[in-house]
Each structure stands twice: as structure tokens, then as C-alpha cells.
Write a structure and sequence with these properties.
One of its GO terms (biological process) is regulation of DNA-templated transcription. This protein is mainly α. Helices cover 59% and strands 0% of the residues. It has helices at residues 23-26, 31-47, 52-63, 67-74, 78-92, 97-105.
């Protein structure tokens, strides 16, 4: 379970400014595997017809950032981020941040 926060790392690949050390790489995950996982996430966000802003917010939500933190990063109002998160959950058919994250990471937990 202590490796769970690092499952989010592939989400960071499209956001190089937020890149962190790569413990998955040290545990045998290659760059190709991480890139493929990131591509799968991006493809799903496209399938759900997210706007570019919604895609960015979705990745930051998966990373675990709060609405306040996301608003600060994006130089937006927290209310705007909340509204976009609501659209993300509606478009994905999922109920909230936890269900949204679980949709992407559930297979890792078996």
C-alpha cells in the first residue's frame, strides 16, 4: 500500500513542470511502460470528451491536489475549478474524486 501514491506518477508525464523522481522506474517500470500508462489515461479523458482545461484538472485531481491548489497552479478561482471538476465527474459518469481516481487505479490494487 505504501507504493500507492507513486501509482499517480504516470499522470505527471504530460505535466513536466510537476515531474517527480520515478520510484516506479526504480522498481522495474521502464519509461515505455510509464508513457503507455499515461497515454491510456489521456485516451480515456479524450473518450469522455473532456476539454483541454478539464484534462489538465483531471490529471491534477488524480495527482491528489486540492481544488485550492489546482486553482493556484492554474491562476483560476477555486469556484471555477470546482465547477470543472463537477463537469469531469458528470462526463465520466463517476461520483466524485475518489471514484474518479479508483477508476484509473483499481487494476493495480488486485
Amino acid at each position: 500500500m505504501d507504493s500507492l501514491p507513486w501509482l499517480i506518477l504516470p499522470v505527471l508525464l504530460p505535466l513536466p513542470a510537476l515531474a517527480l523522481p520515478c520510484p516506479l522506474y526504480r522498481k522495474g517500470w521502464g519509461c515505455d511502460q510509464l508513457r503507455q500508462y499515461s497515454e491510456v489515461i489521456q485516451e480515456q479523458l479524450t473518450t469522455w470528451e473532456f476539454t483541454p482545461s478539464e484534462k489538465e484538472i483531471a490529471l491534477l485531481l488524480l495527482k491528489g491536489l486540492s481544488f485550492e491548489e489546482i486553482a493556484g497552479i492554474r491562476d483560476a478561482k477555486e469556484k471555477t475549478v470546482r465547477q470543472q471538476a463537477t463537469a469531469i465527474y458528470r462526463k465520466s459518469g463517476l461520483n466524485g474524486r475518489h471514484e474518479f481516481a479508483a477508476w484509473f487505479f483499481e487494476d493495480f490494487l488486485h
